[in-house]
Amino acid sequence: MSGIPMIGYRRVSTEEQAEDGNGMDAQGYAIQQEGDRNGWDLTWFGDPGYSAKDTNRPDLRRALAALDKREYAGMVVAKLDRLSRSVIDFATMVERAQKRKWNLVVLDPRFDLSTPYGRAFAGMAAVWAQLERELIGQRTSEGLQALKRQGVRLGRPRQYSADVVALVATLADVEGMGCRAIAAELSRRAVPTVGGRDWHPSTVRRLLSGHRLDLVAASALEASQSQTAASQTKEEG
Q: Which stretches make up the Resolvase/invertase-type recombinase catalytic domain (predicted)?
């Protein structure tokens, strides 16, 4: 009799770890032990040599696509940082699991979306993710204002709020959706456009392009400020 079909996902961050294999083996052992206790029929997905700074990993994307198609009941990881180091990415993945009706299990720290405690934790993660989005928007806005004061030209003024920009960026970078799919999703959610019309892929493309240019500009400013501070410290020393 076959067990519950589950994905066992493993990840290590450096090529050295990927070649050594110990990290992947240790994760696999922990997941298999839990699977034996719960009657899971595990299928393995893994991204050796990939960072958890974002979700742009080939096997993770394949795993999420299979889960969305209900080919598996859920996904299990040995540790949270094997899946994500971003509150926003994790909360978005939890929201995706709840919406698409698949389970997400983390062994350390303990998290199981099928339990009341897991769902409560998911709610708290969503709150912290929203806070992080707002802080990112605030820092980006402050950085852009500083660039303007320095006379840097930043292109056309932003037409959409930070919340809309964050939503579009999340759909693109976390959900892996294309511009056409994002436009359809924004229209479905009744997110208003500047002109009051339906969303179009070209509008989404321009918004994403502007958002990424803003991030590059803000990062450049931060790097410049850090370099200036380091130079001043060196001179004082």
A: 5-151
